[in-house]
Design goal:
4 domains; globular; 13% strand; 19 helices; alpha/beta; 46% helix; Helicase, Ruva Protein, domain 3
């Protein structure tokens, strides 16, 4: 049966007969089929076409199926990849599933099985795209610009910067606390540029081990080191003609910063173990939640790289600094999670929205989204009530009041002045520590630095003030 849409499938195998048989069957089902005889050719086709499904062999010359899988998911995390494998190499297929493959088919394959897996894979992709479209529609209904929701002055100023610099090759540095939406801004810059139909490659620099950073960014040649059985393109090559987003760039080791600076200045580099100079046309967007000027002073970041990155700075405000946007964001998330959770929540009670606006939001918009998802899930009526909110938000206070003076029958305070002052100091001290922990996502090391005391000193204070239960939330 012919399909109503011409979905595009990429078949990758070094055996011409396998490619021919697969392509013929898929074409009969109404799909548009592209063929590649090795992984290197496959990656080129992925950059040139809007591929909806990849079917790839594992063992191939030059670039093998695992590299095709990894790089395909870098280009499009929702792209389904089906692995072709012989009976004797099923263990390798299982490893591919752990890496992110959608499914695998053993050779010789059954035509009915192939048809079923292809249909399931494409249906899954279509559902993911539908959810993305629904989220985009919800943002549009919320009056979003560039896919970003907000009408506060800081957000309006950010819109103006995005409008001005999106369709330029200029490097942009996005700064802000964790959870403020830095990746959303990076995608807005890409989607509103003339590169919007080219790759958008994201690299989480904090997630890459230091000794692998160079090979991840610039790729490597076969035999460059033990285990390099084939050549691999790096993220810069994958992002060629598109946008490369280096998230948490402050985590890049100092020794790697020199090579990154060269790429930014000259648009060229060499793979690890290679001698050929590779030229790329990449628009770089970087982000960090660190204070890079302090990192420069401490020797952790190169000053020349900072100025090369910080051509156009975009500073994202914390949610605490744009509280007037909270009702808009809440309504957007209600619409979003109504669709995902199949609910019909219409609005939120005033007492609940007041509490949301008063909360300190250490996790910013990401935390707000999680809170509203839970509220929509637990809401039993058309309106979210205060009790539907998570406990930490429901019982939170923006400040801790000073203790009142207890008066006994003779009109004299129950405690003396010293006791009252000591109690007040403990309350204030506890409040300051809690706020520091909230603002640093319960990272004890960062909170201690903010309070200008030692990490050990903060831990002792937390024990003294009954805050040790918060240590299990701390990251360091």
């Amino acid at each position: 049966m012919m399909l109503p849409s011409r979905e595009q499938i990429l078949v990758v195998d070094d055996e011409a007969n396998i490619r021919r048989v697969l392509s013929a069957q898929l074409a009969r089902e109404g799909y548009e089929v592209h063929q590649a005889e090795d992984g290197e050719q496959a990656l080129g086709l992925l950059r040139e076409h809007h591929i909806d499904l990849v079917i790839t062999d594992l063992r191939m010359p030059k670039v093998d199926g695992m590299e095709v899988l990894r790089n395909a998911l870098l280009m499009d995390p929702d792209l389904p990849v089906v692995i072709l494998t012989a009976h004797g190499t099923v263990d390798n297929a299982v490893e591919a599933l752990k890496t992110g493959a959608f499914d695998y088919i053993t050779k010789p394959f059954d035509q009915a099985e192939l048809k079923a897996i292809v249909h399931k894979a494409l249906r899954t992709r279509n559902l993911a795209e539908a959810e993305f479209t629904a989220d985009a529609a919800a943002r549009a209904d919320s009056g979003a610009r560039f896919g970003i929701i907000g009408e506060s002055k800081p957000i309006q100023e950010m819109y103006a910067v995005i409008q001005r610099v999106a369709d330029t090759p200029t490097t942009v540095l996005i700064t802000g606390e964790s959870g403020t939406g830095k990746e959303l801004v990076a995608r807005a810059l890409h989607e509103n540029s003339s590169r919007h139909d080219k790759p958008f490659i994201k690299v989480n620099c904090a997630a890459i081990p230091k000794d692998l950073m160079e090979s991840e960014l610039f790729g490597y040649e076969r035999g460059a080191f033990t285990g390099a059985v084939s050549s691999k393109p790096g993220r810069f090559e994958l992002a060629s003609s598109g946008t490369l987003f280096l998230d948490e760039i402050g985590e890049i080791p100092v020794e790697m910063q020199v090579k990154l600076l060269r790429v930014l200045q000259e648009s060229e580099f060499e793979r690890v173990g290679g001698i050929k100079t590779i030229s790329v046309d990449v628009r770089l967007v970087a982000s960090t939640n660190r204070d890079l000027k302090k990192e420069i002073a401490n020797g952790g970041f190169r000053e020349d790289l900072y100025y090369r990155l910080n051509v156009v700075p975009i500073v994202l405000p914390s949610l605490r600094d744009r509280r007037e946007d909270i009702p808009l964001l809440v309504q957007h998330f209600i619409t979003k999670f109504n669709g995902r959770l199949r609910k019909a929540v219409e609005s939120i009670d005033k007492e609940a929205i007041d509490r949301l606006c008063a909360y300190s939001w250490p996790g910013n918009i990401r935390e707000l989204e999680n809170v509203i998802e839970r509220a929509v899930l637990f809401c039993d009526g058309p309106r979210i009530l205060l009790n539907d909110l998570s406990p930490e938000v429901r019982v939170s206070q923006t400040s801790t009041p000073l203790p009142s003076v207890a008066v006994v029958d003779d009109g004299m305070p129950g405690d003396g002045l010293k006791e009252q002052v000591r109690a007040a100091r403990a309350r204030i001290e506890r409040d300051l520590i809690v706020r520091a922990l909230e603002q640093t996502a319960y990272n004890v090391t960062h909170a201690a630095r903010m309070l200008k005391i030692s990490r050990k000193g903060l831990q002792l204070k937390m024990k003294e003030l009954g805050l040790r239960d918060r240590e299990d939330k701390a990251e360091g």
